[in-house]
Amino acid sequence: HPQCSVFWVSAVSAATFTQDCSSIARELSILSEKEKDKDVKDLVKEYLSGGRAGRWLLIIDNVDDANIFSLSPDQSKHVAHFLPASPNGQVLCTTRTRHIATDLTRNGIIQLNQMSKEDSLDFLRNSLSEEKLLCSASITDELLTELEFIPLAIAQAAAYITKNPVSISEYLELLRNTHEDMSELMSAEFTDLTRPQSTSNAIANTWILSFEKIRQTDQTAADLLAFVSYVEPKAIPRSMLPPVPMKTRLVSAIGTLLGYAFFTKRDDNMYDMHRLVQKATKIWLDKHPLVKEEARKKAVKHLADVFPDAQDIYDNMPMCREYLPHALKIAQSAQGEDLASHYTLCKLLGRFFMCDGRLRECIYWYEQVFKWRKENSGEDDAATLDSEYDLGSAYRRDGRIGEAIELFERIVAIRSKMLREDHSDRLSSQHELASAYLEDGRIGEAIEL
């Protein structure tokens, strides 16, 4: 299109936007003496909106903050205010946030979907200094899958592999190793001449800027992001998300995270999160230790509050299965901590596994609860005896009769002293002990109980 002029403006900051507009004005020779006091952004807008400009394409790149010209959301300072309009021209804006896209155009949004595996492989190959750095197809596929086919993540990986140099399999091993290794890889800066000089190229740092922006503008979305960093990143049920006083705030917060592509929507009731976004969120939380600690405790308590009790209502089992991967991840992250909510969650996990017939897993969680209760409440405490009873029942169903009898004899001895003869807790522990005696062939003792 030789008759079409193409102009490029970086909207990373007010300074880059104004500087690029000045360059365009000089190129078009519209900076006259009488116009010297006029805003150069308005000059470019007026010129391109008029008939003298001919055919043109204006690209406004990186519009991730529409209010770069004002600290307050002043419409006269919004980026959209400086966009020209003409039948001879087109404006193409790029942004990572959907709500900005909807401010800039109502019906001209082009959603960029995930890069295909083939395009990702081509991009990796072109980003490496030598093609021989590519290893087997299966290992390369593993890396691209781990990087979720995100271009900036691929570019960062290629830069690291080229610079150090390491093989793709070694890079993949580092990425999957400790949180510290992963954090260092994702935060490593590298040179990318295709990106603005003033911006960070490290994917973690790029996203952290977005996280900070979200924290400034939508605290509910920031809290939601922190919560989701502690659960599994895939198949997150909407019903499991922390409650918000107003439903509209939750809808808006989810919309913010969808707009930044930190969330993707499976359907109206289920969301996914990129694994790399989750890892970057943890790097962000590492920079705010108090926020991190509070978010973790809130996540544990919330799962303990919402995880259904399978033992009380068997109809809860389908929801238990939906929540299970997330509850397990949170419970495992809080292992060994003196949090009552953690052991409430452990008990609920034990009950689910008991109802599901998964006795080894049931026993594992019941043992955690009993140990904590005994250390914190004492051996004769009612809550300790309840957890001991649960564990004894699991031992008996798993065929560990000797261990079950040992626990139930102790429970019966204590409850016989503390509770009246017809108390339900005393009777149920006697019943369990009698059942264990029966299974152990001790018929007389079973009959007596």
TrEMBL record:
Q: Where are the TPR repeats?
A: 385-418
Instruction: List UniProt keywords, sorted A-Z.
Output: TPR repeat
- Which InterPro entries does UniProt cross-reference here? NLR-like, P-loop_NTPase, TPR-like_helical_dom_sf, TPR_rpt
Cite the PROSITE patterns for this sequence: TPR (PS50005)
What would be an example GO MF term here?
Answer: ADP binding
* Superkingdom to which the source organism belongs: Eukaryota
Pfam families of this UniProt entry? TPR_12
Q: What is this protein called?
A: Uncharacterized protein
